[in-house]
Each structure stands twice: as C-alpha cells, then as structure tokens.
Amino acid sequence: MKSKIVVFMTVFSMIFTYGKSQVVPVTDADRVAANRSAADRATADAAADGEEYDLHPPERGGGRPFMELLNERRSTRTFTDRELEPHHLSGLLWAANGVNREEDGKRTAPSARDMREIDIYVITPKGAFLYIPEVHQMRLVKSGDFRKEAVGRSDFAAVAPVILVFVANAKKMEKIEVASRDNYAHIDCGYVSQNVYLYCASEKLATVAIGGVNKEAMAKILGLKNDKVILSQPVGYMH
Ligand SMILES: Cc1cc2nc3c(=O)[nH]c(=O)nc-3n(C[C@H](O)[C@H](O)[C@H](O)COP(=O)(O)O)c2cc1C
C-alpha cells in the first residue's frame, strides 16, 4: 500500500511540475483535444507573452486539383470578421512555410541556400504570434490588436481575422554575402505568399498580398532589431 502511494505521489508530482508545453499527447485523439484547447487559449484574453500554443496537426493530403487552384487563384479584398477555424489556421501556416520533410526540417516553400529565413508573424484581434514551423506552434509575442498596422494603407483588410506578416530574419542570413540578402529574402517571401494564395484557393478563403504594410510600426510592435518586414497577407472567409 505504501509503495502504491509513493508511485501515485511521484506520478502526480511529475505531471504537476512538467507544465503544459511538455505534456506530449499520446494518441491522435489526445493530440487533437490538446490542440483544440491550445487553439482556444490562443484567442484567450489573458494570454502571457512568450506562451506557446500547439496548432492542429496539419492536413497534408487532399485539397483541390492543382490546375483548378491556378484557375481560382486571385486577390480578394473583402473579408468577413469570422475567426478562422483551428484547422484552417493550422493548414494555412503549414502550407505557407511548414515542415514537409521531418528528416531534415525542410519546408513547403523553397529558400535560397536553404536559409529558411522567412518568419511568419500571425496577427489576430488578440495578439501578434510567431509561427514556429519545427514544432507547428505559435508563440505569443505581444497581446493586442495590431491588424491596422499590419495592413497599413489597405485598411479594407483590417477586418480580416488573421493577417500574416512575412519578415526576413537577419540572423538566418548571416552566412551569405550582404549583397544577396535582400534579393533572396524578397524572392523567398514570394514563394511563401504564393503558397498562401494557393491554400486559400483550395479552401475558398479570401486573401491579398499587401505591400503597404506599415513596416516601421510592425517592426516596433514585434520588437524587431535587424529583421525586416517585407509583406503582409490577410486571410479570412469570403462574404
Ligand atoms: C508584392 C505585392 C504587393 C501587393 N500589394 C498590394 C497592396 O498593398 N494592396 C492591394 O490591394 N493589393 C496588393 N497586391 C495585390 C495585387 O494588386 C494583385 O496581385 C494584382 O492586382 C493582380 O490581381 P490578382 O492577384 O487577383 O491576380 C500586391 C501584390 C503583390 C504581389
């Protein structure tokens, strides 16, 4: 009996001290449940900066035929304010620049010299999050609604429930010559943006690339020093 109590206390204290980010769901059902609650927390008011949120496991099959996507790909400038379903947020980020080869961490979008320098910040009415492709999570960077800054002059898009902001990560470009950095970052950002366009075409979501993002304001909000804001891209449901 005594040993049973000891085992119980040990297990209980391990669970207690581990904390939510280290709890590894055991089955797919557990994982979906954990992700669902994490996605709920991601939109909660009382979130703490730096907190990480699991996303749904991305659906890596299906979708509409490729030629149909090209036929449907377009810029749409009207959005409803309806929050994105968790599976859409997950699929969107994975399609944009998620890991599609776990063995070496390579991505859905190509990148010059495999720099993987395009960071995606996810701006929602509740806060600015950084997408972390390696673990398919979002990390809260700052609480608050920064959608106006994320679309700048294109204020018609500030109503969108999610605005992606693409940023060139200076640290990840250190290994290449200075003269090539901006060029490569802009090209690589284009691939990520096109992935978003194609995912939106597949899921009948509205999106448009926004070059007029308020870069200075966004850099301040996100606490960027050397990293450069390149482009933003609102995503939402169509009217
Ligand atoms: C780099 C880039 C920046 C853009 N910036 C804006 C923008 O600030 N505001 C806007 O309404 N559309 C913007 N667009 C969308 C273009 O206007 C749009 O792609 C173009 O009119 C062609 O339409 P389509 O995407 O439906 O084919 C941008 C597109 C790209 C590729």
Describe this structure in words.
Helix 3 packs across helix 6 and helix 4 packs antiparallel against helix 6 (178-203). The chain is globular and about 45 Å long. The protein has seven helices and nine strands. The protein has one domain (2-237): NADH Oxidase. The chain has 239 residues and is of the alpha+beta class. The strands form two sheets. It has a seven-stranded antiparallel sheet. A two-stranded antiparallel ribbon has the order 2-3. The N and C termini lie far apart (64 Å). Bound molecules: flavin mononucleotide. Flavin mononucleotide is lined by residues 74-75, 77, 154, 208-212, 231.
Short overview:
The chain is α+β, with helices and mostly antiparallel strands. It has helices at residues 2-18, 28-42, 66-72, 86-97, 147-151, 178-203, 215-222, and strands spanning 52-54, 99-101, 106-107, 118-124, 127-132, 137-143, 162-168, 205-207, 228-237.
What is the β-strand count?
A: 9
Give the strand order of the largest sheet, numbering strands 1, 2, ... along the chain.
1-6-5-4-7-9-8
The proportion of residues in beta strands is 15-25%
Indicate the CATH topology.
Answer: NADH Oxidase
Count of the separate structural domains? 1
Can you count the helices? 7
CATH level-two architecture = 3-Layer(aba) Sandwich
By oligomeric state, this entry counts as single chain
Global shape: globular
Uncertain ranges:
1-46
What is the residue-averaged pLDDT? 86
Radius of gyration, taken over Cα atoms and rounded to an integer in Å: 19 Å
Order of helices and strands: HHEHHEEEEEHEHEHE
Q: Which homologous superfamily in CATH is the superfamily?
A: NADH Oxidase
Helix content: 25-40%
